[in-house]
């Protein structure tokens, strides 16, 4: 499926290109992937001169960042940053320009934790999810879209949303046909010096909190583990998963005595302290798209060894 070219748009016409978020200390905010068009509401100017106050002056048809600053009790610079980073939406649509004129009764939805926009076109949005963000909470910012994949709350990295039902169904079929490539980074305990292919069936108990187990009666699962860099007590590995079972990477690595650092479910007795689960979705490819996180993994995992 080809994308039509549109004037003054950031949409890409080739799906063979890898879309990468810009690097930063934290998950960065790609400010160049937004559509450049916005609806301008005619501003009604009052002939009377209002008295200056300590607060931002608000009139009918006010710039979005000023209105957001007043409503959220934040600085105008902070409001601009929130809008420019794609974290503000109005009526389910992301607000693209901070200077868009809006009426006084505008209600904003603000995603408090940043998720950089890696890429967006007519069919799909690729985000760089931060640690601590629930996948389903992204739908509060994008209520008209559907999740294509999910990441655990404590896992960061590439997450995708379908903008229409056709894309969602195509993505579902791609997953069923195992035509989706996902590559993760993980910091694991112990040292690994060569590639390990783990093929162990997994069953998942889904109560209030999901937990998976290695079970001969479970579903087939494969994880391909490749060492990237070894340290004193740990190894940074990349993990490719042709299958996508709940907690697959976490339970597979724990089953071979190389649990992920910071995993409080499958690595409870670890003596290595960590501020987060050291698991990050680095790349996702499907339907001709290739998306890559812009996170510096050494900084994200705070690797100083």
From TrEMBL:
Pfam families the record matches: PseudoU_synth_2
Gene3D superfamilies on file: Pseudouridine synthase
Coiled coil: none
Gene Ontology MF annotations: catalytic activity, acting on RNA; pseudouridine synthase activity; RNA binding
Catalysed reactions, as listed in the record: a uridine in RNA = a pseudouridine in RNA
All copies of domain Pseudouridine synthase RsuA/RluA-like, residue ranges: 126-255
Biological process terms in GO annotation: enzyme-directed rRNA pseudouridine synthesis
Keywords from the UniProt entry: Isomerase
Alphabetical list of PANTHER family matching this protein: MITOCHONDRIAL RNA PSEUDOURIDINE SYNTHASE (PTHR21600), RIBOSOMAL LARGE SUBUNIT PSEUDOURIDINE SYNTHASE D (PTHR21600:SF44)
Record-stated family: Belongs to the pseudouridine synthase RluA family.
Name listed for the protein in its UniProt record: RNA pseudouridylate synthase
Gene designation per UniProt: rluC
